[in-house]
Amino acid sequence: MASPTAPLASPAEPPAATAANLVQSVDWLAIAPPTLAAVVGLGVLVADLFVDRHKKALLGWVSVAGLAASALLLLPLLDGDRSTFCLTGDADACSYTADRFTLVIQFLVLGGALLAALLSVTTLKDADKRIPEGEYWFLLLSSAAGAALLPASRDLATLIVALEVASLPAFALVGIRHGDRKSSEAALKFFLSSVTATAVSLMGISFVYASTGTLYLTQVADRIQHVDGQLHTLAQTGVVLTLVGFAFKTAAVPFHFWVPDTYAGAPLPIAAYLSVVGKAVGFSGLILITVVALPSYADVWGPALAALAALTMTVGNVGALRQQATRAYSAVRLLAWSSVGQAGYLLVPIAAAAYSDDAERSVGSTVAYALMYAAVNLGAFAVAALVGRTKAANRITDYRGLYATNPLAALLLAFFLLCLAGLPPGIIGLFAKVTVFSAAVDAGLGWLAVVMAVNVVIALFYYLQWTTLLFRAPEGEPAGHRVPAPLTAALALTGVLGVALSGAPQLVLRFADTGLF
């Protein structure tokens, strides 16, 4: 166990005792996954200074290996919960905890970053030096390290630091293409809106700290129930502002306005990264704030998240439905609006946790759905990256007749879209939606279950419309799609994972039955 800054010694406390309290121990194994990702990122940045410009591709493969090694370091942590940076004398007040929830989210984050890195190897090669490789890999690994740190954070300070370490490099990655005005504009929108949300979160956290006198989530949960009457309004305001800040990170409506332009302007692997890892960051932070730190305020955040879920899934699906197939970047924009709609589904079990007797089971439904969504959404982006190599505008119409030129890619994209829609053979998508639906019904949120059912029907239309386009006769001369090895690996991994989960959905759905904390 480790102890961060120890409390000041009382006048009667001997100097030796004070020194002993200040000595910290660190569980290096517990913090190894995010630490390794950060160290590899720094190593790649330094190596970039010495590697010949014709061998820059090596930096990409080192980064891929680093992310894979970070993910493998999760295996030794499966034997039990581990905590470090804990208060002296209070083993429950820790800054870092590697429990079941942490490990599942870290697997999602590092796996998602690994797949985004595989897509990036091909994208950087095709960019013809318009993207600085050393800086790109450093930023990606730094963001992944912050994202992996966040689910383990158990105090508000570490939580907000992890959130910013995950977010700040992402701003630069969105606008990293030299001379691309669309990319720069997307980065600016992302940056301004995200900084505003961060400022709101920090103000909320400062109010919570002023009311409770602590930053540790377990202590906040206890003390916020007994706040002095004069500070009650301050505590309530802090809770609301903190929730608003994290709602932005989940791309919940009305904090979603940056998503379509950012995804369309960013390099495609970064859009894929944000759609999965960015959401994992937001949702894991929101779960820790609501279920762990503020369970006593369930009457506040429960109705708020239920309303946000209904609004988010509706706006996201209607936005996707309105996409014009001939518009430039319409395929990416459809996936962006789809991700907003999916965020609404992910919010449903968190809202249900406020009304449920078993909050852990409800949160498990969100995590199970997030795992399914991560695998198939990254697969859809991988196919989009393949088509984008020959069709730079990446319109939905560019996918017409894909089966004639690349049958395997067309079948994979059809499978991924059907998973997102919740239709067979995408069994995992169907079961994940049923799990979320059941969480709403069991919590007594029948109206939210009805809204979700309506939105699932709306989403069926645009998912099936895109799917049928893949198998139509191509217009004009079919364009072949050469698939580089890294892109092939990304397609294979997401395809195998999607098929495996459809064949054995219990691999992820068990989290909805057993909980995670």
Describe what you observe in this structure:
- Helix 4 runs parallel beside helix 14, helix 5 packs antiparallel against helix 6 and helix 16 runs parallel beside helix 17.
- It contains 21 helices and two strands.
- A two-stranded antiparallel sheet has the order 1-2.
- The longest helix is centred in the middle third of the chain and has 32 residues.
- The N terminus is likely disordered.
- It starts with 14 loop residues before the first helix and ends with a helix.
- By secondary structure, it is mainly α.
Main features:
two-stranded antiparallel ribbon, 517 residues, single chain, mainly alpha, disordered N terminus
Tell me which oligomeric state these chains represent: single chain
Per DSSP, the total helix count is 21
Helix content: 55-70%
Morphology? globular
Strand content is under 5%
SSE string, helices as H and strands as E: HHHEEHHHHHHHHHHHHHHHHHH
Structural class by helix and strand composition? mainly alpha
Characterize the largest beta sheet: strand count, sense, and whether it forms a barrel. Answer: 2 strands, antiparallel
Query: How are strands sequenced across the largest beta sheet?
Result: 1-2
From the N-terminal CA to the C-terminal CA, the straight-line distance is 19 Å
- Number of β-strand runs: 2
How many whole angstroms does the radius of gyration measure? 23 Å
Give the overall average pLDDT. Answer: 86
Low-confidence stretches: 1-23
